[in-house]
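Structure representation:
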Amino acid sequence: MDIRPWKNYSATFRRVMVAWMLFMAISGRRLCDCKCAFEAIFNFGDSNSDTGGFYAAFPAESLPYGMTYFRKPVGRATDGRLMIDFLAQALGLPFLSPYLQSIGSDYRHGANFATLASTVLLPKTSLFVTGVSPFSLAIQLNQMKQFKSKVDESHTKGIFGKLPPQDIFGKSLYTFYIGQNDFTGNLSSLGIEGVKQYLPQVVAQIAGTIKDLYVLGGRTFLVLNLAPVGCYPAFLAELPHNRSDLDAFGCMVSYNNAVVDYNNMLKAALTQTRQAIPDASVIYVDTHAVLLDLFQHPISHGLKYGTRACCGYGANAYNFDPKVYCGNTKVINGSTLTATACGDPYNYVSWDGIHATEAANKLTAYAILNGSYFDPPFPLHQLCDLQPLV
């Protein structure tokens, strides 16, 4: 599968097409006149699906983030587009506007409540102490409730603006990609066994949120599971482990096994949720399987590097140093160190040691849209004329 489908076209053609897509995304119009049962997407998540919410609240992002597609930082924790961007594109929808972005947002086709560093459970500390976002899943749900209330109020007054119609909520896709920070945030201090103790609360909160959204009118939910964090360059460089804990591909077995336990717990919780709201579609999406294959067999997918970060600094094989994150410069022991980006992010699975590259996001989106990773099976290709990913 070619992750660079435009490589045979002229640079001028590529620039024109990118400019057109960006214009359509900004204008809030569908990118096509294609048939699709879903007229909007409402997303809940963390940095893996944040399209600019966190940096709208706390402006700080800089290059090289955004270098591949947008050519500038646009609030995404990667070099280009995220899986949620590709999903929107496939459904013929514009990129999702962050709920927290007050300038330039258009919510006629949904909203994105995700923010970088978000957790499912309410944080017990401040962003400025531990770096955990204050916009946990419960806050994102409250924002969604407020959004619906504002839509209802606006239509009652005959004021529409860039808001969707009142009946949009039953015609939307609700996506979740959250839980990674609950899992990884305390690994170094509590260890795997310590983290496992509160994971049942995490899955219960996700299940409860789905039921609340059902009351608001939601009927179709895609819940992405947890990625194989034992393959992340950042954790390979930071978390304690020995060589016997590494598999043949260089990933940490114990951490990945703990992820599998969590994912099984999430899958079971969604099964119970499905029984509680039988007229809704609650779909478990196994992104873990896709990403694990990318990390372990990058060359088979047209990539080169699995457990090495594109953007980082470090003498280790992972190109990651926790003291100097991607795009930052620091003076350490009298030496000025800068974590720079590679020139070929399309060859990497990992962008900055934690987040996937646009190339990996695109390949994962391809796999999801194929339908092979839905449980139970979900006929997305029959409900929508899926558009090609460019």
Summary: The chain has a mean pLDDT of 92. The beta strands are 40-45, 110-112, 172-177, 220-224, 281-285, 305-309, 329-332, 335-338, 348-350, 374-375.
